[in-house]
Specification:
With about 500 residues, the protein is mainly alpha-helical. It has two domains: about 25-215 and about 265-490, Growth Hormone, Chain: A (Up-down Bundle), CATH 1.20.1250.20; about 215-265. It has helices at about 25-55, 60-90, 90-110, 115-145, 150-180, 185, 190-200, 215-240, 245-265, 280-310, 315-320, 320-340, 345-360, 370-400, 405-440, 445-480. Helix 2 runs antiparallel to helix 3 (about 90-110), helix 5 packs antiparallel against helix 12 and helix 8 (about 215-240) packs antiparallel against helix 9.
Length: about 500
């Protein structure tokens, strides 16, 4: 059993680095949280501006998808590689490099004059995000001593992660309404510059550790995850039988199977499979995957419902999502205080239950539903549940992880949510579209009929999402046991 780390003076780290004294921990957390917020809100803030981007750069409807997909593919495909790079080459160094890449991609995107230019810039942003996201979480894990201090820090980190989508929708509406669409990208530039300058001053340096990247494994998993995300995204727009859906998903499954074989045979694997030996940790990954599937549908369908059915402007729709931030922050703070006393299982299961109930409430919406009566209450229940889940799954994922594996565990948590989001949106989008299409068969497509059919599709999708959340509840009950145990995996010797 690893000895509990002290919470005073400085904490030695592997690779020769050491943490800053406690008075600097607040600044360190601020830098990490702002970087995570910048990455998380990027997709939402750009989504609101898509109609303006399409008009300005003359995108085709198919091409416009790549403004979102380019970022999602690079981000999802490179997460494991980004997390492992931080473990090997030093988290602070890799974190700063990711922030710089993300910032340069944002700057290039803001100046884009062609569709190809903007898509390339979005891919660069995705590469930077794939480096920043896992290293940010691993920096929390190695900077704050395990226990109450780390739980509070992870509460802040998780609140930022969970509320980022809603904040992005609000900022996107404000910027699109009052400025140019270019500022949804330019806004990252001053933030990125401040982060790149501040990080070396407030984050502890770490020298990494001996080893090398498992390049065959990196190629296989990057290509596999990228194709899987692409296939799911195509399914959402083109259907599950389209060759551009089936082909990439089949190829992805082959590549991911090859990745497992490579990892079993590699002397220095990119993803040591022993990381799944902890039942609690594996359960946390599965819960995060399921909740990621429901969260993507929540933001997408509610945005469409508020604007297309209730007639909200982008700004008003963004403001309507603001209570999600309050609910997520409240749930995160409650969870960060409870986990140290009663362990992760109860808050995780309560969070999944609240999420399932909130989504079930949203499944009851109709075209005549008002925001206060039909949307706000279930949305707040869901947001509170998300706050509980984000904190508990994050704490479980990094508890007992050795410093040389924290980037990997952080990346796996992000990969689970990213893949869950892509798969969830594809499945739920297909279900919603099918219900809408069937409702319109044989009737005159008046505005009222279309609103009714579209809302019926959204309601059905929310109902299926509530079943997925109930599945997360069952996983939490079955897999997570008692307090988060310190099963430190870096005590397991690696092959030379």
């Amino acid at each position: 059993m690893a000895k509990e780390l002290p919470s005073t003076p400085t904490l030695p780290r592997k690779g020769g680095g050491e943490s800053m004294p406690p008075k600097s921990l607040g600044l360190a957390l601020a830098v990490i949280a702002v970087a995570q917020l910048m990455v998380v809100l990027d997709t939402a803030i750009v989504n609101i501006a898509l109609p303006s981007i399409q008009r300005a750069l003359h995108f085709t409807p198919t091409g416009l998808e790549w403004v979102v997909n380019g970022y999602a593919l690079a981000f999802g495909g490179l997460l494991l590689l980004g997390g492992r790079a931080g473990d090997l080459f030093g988290r602070r160094r890799v974190f700063v490099a990711g922030v710089i890449v993300f910032t340069l991609g944002s700057l290039a995107g803001g100046f884009a004059t062609t569709s190809t230019w903007l898509i390339a810039a979005r891919i660069a942003q995705g590469v930077g995000g794939a480096i920043v996201a896992p290293t940010a979480l691993s920096l929390v894990a190695v900077t704050f001593p395990e226990g109450a201090s780390r739980n509070r820090a992870l509460g802040v980190y998780s609140a930022v992660s969970g509320a980022g989508g809603a904040v992005g929708l609000l900022l996107g509406g404000l910027i699109t309404n009052y400025f140019s669409w270019r500022w949804v990208l330019f806004v990252n530039v001053p933030i990125g510059i401040v982060l790149a300058l501040a990080a070396p001053r407030v984050l502890a340096a770490s020298g990494g550790r001996p080893g090398r990247l498992d390049l065959p494994g990196a190629v296989a998993v990057t290509a596999g995850v990228t194709l899987l995300v692409y296939g799911f995204n195509r399914a959402a727009s083109s259907g599950w039988t389209n060759s551009l859906t089936v082909g990439p998903i089949a190829a992805a499954l082959v590549l991911l199977a090859a990745f497992i074989v490579i990892e079993l045979r590699s002397a220095q694997p990119l993803m040591p499979l022993r990381i799944f030996a902890s039942r609690n940790r594996s359960g946390a990954y599965a819960v995060r995957f399921a909740i990621g599937a429901t969260l993507s549908g929540l933001l997408f369908f509610l945005t469409q419902f508020l604007q297309n059915v209730l007639g909200y402007s982008p700004l008003k729709a963004g403001l309507a999502f603001l209570p999600i931030t309050v609910g997520v922050v409240a749930g995160a703070q409650v969870a960060s205080r409870l986990v140290g006393r009663i362990g992760p299982r109860v808050p995780m299961t309560v969070g999944a239950l609240a999420g399932a109930l909130g989504l079930f409430g949203l499944s009851r919406i109709s075209e005549s539903s008002g925001y206060l009566a039909g949307v706000l209450a279930p949305m707040m229940a869901l947001a509170f549940g998300l706050g509980l889940i984000f904190v508990t799954t994050t704490i479980v994922a990094v508890t007992g992880i050795g410093a040389n594996e924290s980037g990997l565990s952080s990346a796996l948590l992000n990969v689970g949510q990213q893949l869950g989001g892509s798969m969830g949106l594809a499945v739920l989008g297909t279900i919603a579209a099918t219900v809408t299409k069937n409702d319109l068969l044989g009737i005159l497509p008046t505005h009222a009929a279309i609103s009714h059919a579209v809302t019926a599709g959204y309601g059905t999708a929310f109902g299926i999402a509530s079943v997925i959340a109930a599945g997360a509840l069952l996983i939490a009950i079955a897999a997570v046991r008692g307090p988060a145990r310190r099963t430190t995996i870096d005590t397991v010797p690696e092959a030379a």
